[in-house]
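When time allows, look over one protein, given below as sequence and tokens. The question is which stretches look regular and which look disordered:
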Amino acid sequence: MKYNVVVVDDDSIILKRAWNILTNADMKAIVLKSGSQLLEYVRKNQTPDLILLDISMPGMDGFATMKELRKQEQKGQEIPVIFLTANEDVAAEEKGLNCGAMDYIKKPFIANVLILRVKHAIELVRLQRHLADEVEKKTQENEQLFLHVVSSLASAIDAKDTYTNGHSGRVAAYAREIAKRFGYNEKQQHDIYMMGLLHDVGKIGVPDSVINKPERLTDEEFELIKKHPEVGGRILDNIREMPRLSAGARWHHEKYAGGGYPDGLRGDHIPEEARIIAVADAYDAMSSNRSYRRALSQEKVRSEIERGKGKQFDPRFADIMLAMIDEDHDYRMRDQLD
């Protein structure tokens, strides 16, 4: 594969020499006379492998050109730049390196030195990007594996309650949608989805007979249920790679106005993700059949969410859930989010 190199210099002699050296080394060379021409070229053409950029040019100098170039590039896809200079100015070299240049080449340049530096720079960048791609690939593979493990664990937890199969997955999906509408980025949406999947992990320590009891729970049984957030928080605290994972499990039963459990937090003292999951969890609980009652009507669910604004729920996230309910004309949201 031919290396594609752009040379930018206001000196026609330098451009001609650089073009001759690079093409004789079996590279494709494009020569331009100004920074503005370079910016235009990059906007309209295939990204070059490397730019050789003169510092001292009339109008837009090399530093200004480099700054504008970086503005129009995507993060992680920056074109490597080597500055060309006839000066022995250490301060200028430092400034250029701080701008993101890979190297300096002094003019007039020696053919073999130019070829070696260009090849080494391009090969280094390609190696770095290849390694970055491999790391990203492995990271995604690990995240997928972790997601499968978490999903399996969530399914095992849900299986304890014969009436709420799929509850954790639905809560995770509702929470992700609320977070998305609130402005969370994709990484944050993914994280809250994981929190939602595991929000009830503490129920692993609650007897099935209590979870599935069709009659009213005794005070002792209700105290057992109330322990599941604290137990879940302790379990997930052990996952050091995701230090906030436990927030949804521990605090999704706190109330915005106070009076929730296990810690009696209120308002912004409750982690934001837990406030989102609290609304998602309440919606799914009300819209699903339970051991002690049938699913509530959509109108009743909506009125309960509305009534809980500012009391049980953060009003911002309750309003988002209310908007989602209003869009769900056929009361089929549980079937539409995955």
Remarks:
- The chain has two domains: 4-132, 159-336.
- The chain has a mean pLDDT of 88.
